[in-house]
Design goal:
two-stranded antiparallel ribbon; Aminoglycoside 3'-phosphotransferase, Chain: A, domain 2; Phosphorylase Kinase, domain 1; 5-stranded antiparallel beta sheet; 9 strands; globular; 13% strand; alpha+beta; 2 domains; single chain; 341 residues
């Protein structure tokens, strides 16, 4: 049988046994997801199942697929109220699959990715799901990161200013054309970085499809997944990104009609206000955070197209992702000006 891309089942089986996993029968592996994101597999013996994740075999920068980061935060959050899959094993050196790899317990449940996944849900169920997502995010931001051993997980001081600089540098690396609105947005953001910000663990990519929900209750998150962008930073960057993901143009970045962009979910403003009331945090400088999130997503859209044009990404619709960049740039400038549309 042909091996799955990026996988070596015999090597994985040896690694699990050496890590103290008591396998019951031969190991079987199937792919859950691939493409531009981390490669994700389900590994099973005759009794139990695990999820194995590793970076793509080619494509994005290593920082976008930091498995050590993902391992550290999920292991630390295990004893907290944040729902995460149980940490099992970590290959930091990439000796098993040729790249760093994490193994966690398989969490059964439901994943909502596309608009079609909402078709059997009532409006009340979707509202409950949105409320739960906001509650989980607020719970994450309330974790004492020093107490759980993540005091060195990132550098919260100056985090927002570094985000502005980081995405500006990324724009220079991936841009496929000149786009004055992106340059104007960067300049405006750099000139309006808040002088004081909060600090917490941030997920970095929080929305419904990065959670596993209970199979019989979409109003309960069984596990938050995809932690490779997590760090210590400003919690409002998480909230703003979650809200900006609600824009319909985000479908062009994902290449699918996403569930999270559906009009059946609460508006971005409603989500932000719900977060504020749930967490007790004020949304100070909120327009800045919305603009920064738009800037980031615009650059990400351009990056997908850059890789498609270079031949390193053949995902469906990748070449069209840059169409979103101009829209995100314009939305960021509107946010900074205080406009609502």
């Amino acid at each position: 049988m042909t091996e799955l891309p990026g996988m070596d089942t015999p090597a994985l089986e040896r690694f699990l046994r050496e890590s103290g996993v008591n396998l019951q029968g031969a190991l079987r592996v199937e792919m859950i997801s691939g493409g531009r994101s981390n490669l994700t597999y389900k590994a099973s013996d005759d009794v139990s199942s695990w999820v194995v994740r590793r970076p793509p075999t080619s494509g994005l920068t290593p920082s976008a697929h930091d498995m050590a980061r993902e391992w550290a935060v999920t292991r630390a959050l295990g004893p907290t109220g944040v729902p995460v899959a149980g940490a099992v094993a970590f290959d930091a050196d990439g000796t098993v699959l040729g790249a760093p790899m994490t193994v966690v317990d398989f969490q059964p449940g439901r994943v909502i990715r596309t608009g079609d996944d909402l078709s059997d849900l009532s409006d009340a169920q979707i509202a409950a799901n949105a409320s739960e997502l906001v509650h989980v995010l607020a719970t994450l931001h309330a974790v004492d990161y020093v107490e759980v051993g993540l005091g060195d997980f990132g550098r919260p001081d100056g985090f927002v200013a570094r985000q502005v600089s980081t995405w500006a540098r990324q724009w220079k690396r991936v841009k496929t054309r000149d786009l004055p609105d992106i340059d104007r947005l960067h300049a405006a953001l750099a000139a309006s970085v808040p002088s004081e910000t909060a600090a917490s663990i941030v997920h970095g990519d929080f929305r419904v499809d990065n959670t596993i929900l209970k199979s019989d209750d979409v109003g309960t998150v069984a596990a938050v997944v995809d932690w490779e962008m997590s760090t210590l930073g400003d919690p409002l960057t998480d909230v703003a990104l979650m809200c900006v993901y609600r824009q319909p143009i985000f479908d062009a970045v994902l290449g699918v009609s996403a569930a999270w962009t559906s009009q059946r979910y609460p508006s971005a403003d409603a989500l932000a206000q719900l977060y504020s009331s749930t967490s007790g945090r004020d949304l100070d400088h909120w327009n800045f955070y919305l603009a920064l999130a738009n800037f980031k997503l615009g650059v990400i859209g351009e990056g997908i197209t850059h890789r498609a044009l270079s031949g390193s990404d053949t995902g469906a619709g990748a070449a069209e992702a840059a169409h979103a960049t101009a829209e995100f740039a314009a939305a960021g400038l509107r946010a900074l000006s205080g406009a609502t549309a």
